[in-house]
Design brief:
4 strands, elongated, homohexamer, alpha+beta, two-stranded antiparallel ribbon
Chain lengths: ~70, ~70, ~70, ~70, ~70, ~70
């Protein structure tokens, strides 16, 4: 405790970015909860296949998210 | 909000059926919550490996589900 | 299988609306998967406390969602 | 996308700390994914009743976590 | 790792039964994974409100589950 | 009901061990809830990619878990 699940669409983020997410989110929580809980702070990355995540009924692909990131979505 | 997770066994439904599920489930919710919430209605498909879903202790495979669908299960 | 989880903010929808969601979402799935799977189609409503659901870092309250529904958000 | 679920034991953190978690975790993700995705970055707090979270088979209570935080656990 | 989530309908099981579930499920896993992983074996009880869990489109109440348990369902 | 989700790191356990988990965890629950609920007791195995599960901010790999199992971690 705490347990954090970060849900992403597969193919959007690199392995390095996912490692950064685990580190930064852990540090954010530890800054609030205190260092003593670091060892029981679990952060997981869970990836959903591209196209299996719908927003307003339309499937979101990894490509669509990258366009959105670049302001071309 | 709302967020909907549809959990399936991998290999039972086609990509087209999964797209239909996202569309129909979104429309069902929007018909209750109102059109204004469509943009924040997220529907995801999450698939579990065939054999990793047990019912009453016995692993359910994609093949077993298809037999059940056809009334031969 | 399938299992569907509908995540809502507490206080936005009435019990009657939640019942409708369970019925309509079940019917949507059964229309795709076939009647034979109705008995193993589970649909659950999971509610999160108002204020515990952040969008872009800002907590979303039940009141804010209702404003959004009415086009005054 | 992304969607983040922060699972806590009820009674350990104040409302203010939970708001800070939503803000800080959102900011951590946005610093990696880019500002353009802030609006579709959802962070939720999900709380489990004290005693309903077992570690190694022993129920963890809110009180036990607070002792751990203070180094008296 | 492992993390186990046991989802129940509120009002069906007593606190004592929920404690037993945490203990027994932990012991089952440890018997397979080895004693060395006991400390990182987390088992949680997550309860859904009575009526918010639909089977085949019909809401399941705590009362209905108890009838089922007694063979009168 | 009940529904049990067992979250593992991919590559740590064999298919046979995962089948044993489904069986043993189902039997543990049935021993508490009663035989009448066996048919509606669902147990699922959900696997996370090696490296996508962080403890204290450091990614846990399947290899690291096996070292831990053997007391060499």
């Amino acid at each position: 405790m705490p347990l954090v699940d970060i849900h992403l669409i597969k193919g959007v983020f690199s392995d390095q970015q996912k490692r950064q997410m685990i580190e930064k989110v852990t540090d954010s929580l530890v800054s609030i909860e205190g260092e003593a809980l670091r060892g029981v702070t679990w952060v997981r990355i869970l990836e959903v296949a591209s196209g299996d995540w719908g927003i307003g009924g339309r499937p979101m692909t990894a490509e669509a998210v990258r366009h959105l990131q670049q302001g071309t979505g």
